[in-house]
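Example record

The entry below shows one chain as it appears in the dataset: sequence first, then structure tokens.
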Amino acid sequence: MQPTLLVLAAGMGSRYGGLKQVDQLGPNGETIIDYSIFDAIEAGFGKIVFVIKKAIEDDFKAVIGAKYETRIPVEYVFQELDKLPPGMTVHPERVKPYGTAHAILMGKDVVKEPFAVINGDDFYGKAAFKTMADFLNTLSCDATTYAMVGYELEKTLSENGFVSRGVCVTDAQNQLIEVVERTKIQKEDGKIVTPLENGIVLTLEAHTPVSMNFWGFTPALFAPLENLFKDFMTANADKPTAEFYIPSVITHLIETKKASVKVLHSDAAWFGVTYQEDRPGVVEKLHAMVQNRIYPSPLF
């Protein structure tokens, strides 16, 4: 049984011009999603499931999905405001879906095998997909042993401004203890720093593992995920902008001993277009990988 790749792409709009998820960055107009799908197929994933919005279904299938459908089975699920458990209602002021953990929950009816989760607009690297596929291939569908690809903090920074990262706290066996969201991380005087609420500036080690939203799960996740989403909806009934994020779910499952999460090390260099000024560097890196024969050109 081959693992599935769940691609979070519901943040994409129906007009593609300025959206980084479909920005043509490769030598033949390839997008970052193209490289992720190529790497996933090569690593042995057996199915792609895109999480999108219903409003962009036709455009997405024509512009994105059609490239892969002859190479690997592709399915689509839809993250919408009203995709809620029975008895739950949408806050009248709510304008967008409920975050990344809600997006994963949309896959519960079509994902029946161990699966990985990625962002549609992040480049994770060939080695990371192979590492995750190898891990998922060891799991049964009811396993509650999960994984996350950890990237070295220094390799995920932008030269053009601060970034937010999920800083991982692990034990001696690389088991995840918690993910702490740190905002406004940047290089300053040769150090990697981030301000804390009390005015103290925290210095972070360059090799600290951080989460870039590359997770490995099994279908056993969906039942507790749905229950936690119900709890979230109840607790945030009067908060129309509250977000249901993956790290908070994972931290809860670890603390209640309902799951364990192994941090898989990756030497791959994550990159993405956080700022418009990042774009030339990303284009340069992709072109260099093609020149070094890491990727064919064109990809498909």
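Notes for this example: Residues 222-235 form the longest helix (14 residues). The chain has one domain: 4-150+211-251+259-291.
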